[in-house]
Amino acid sequence: MSKFYVALVHYPVYDKNGKIVTTAVTNVDVHDIARSSVTYGVDGYFLVTPVEQQRALVTELLEHWKDGPGATYNKRRSQAISFVRVVADLSEAMRVVESETGQRPITVGTGASLDERTVTHQKMREILAEASSPVLLLFGTGWGLEKRFVDSMDYLLKPIRGKVTYNHLSVRSAAAIMLDRLLGRGLDDI
Amino acid sequence: MSKFYVALVHYPVYDKNGKIVTTAVTNVDVHDIARSSVTYGVDGYFLVTPVEQQRALVTELLEHWKDGPGATYNKRRSQAISFVRVVADLSEAMRVVESETGQRPITVGTGASLDERTVTHQKMREILAEASSPVLLLFGTGWGLEKRFVDSMDYLLKPIRGKVTYNHLSVRSAAAIMLDRLLGRGLDDI
Question: Which residue in B120, B173, B184 is closest to A172 by CB distance?
Answer without folding.
Answer: B173
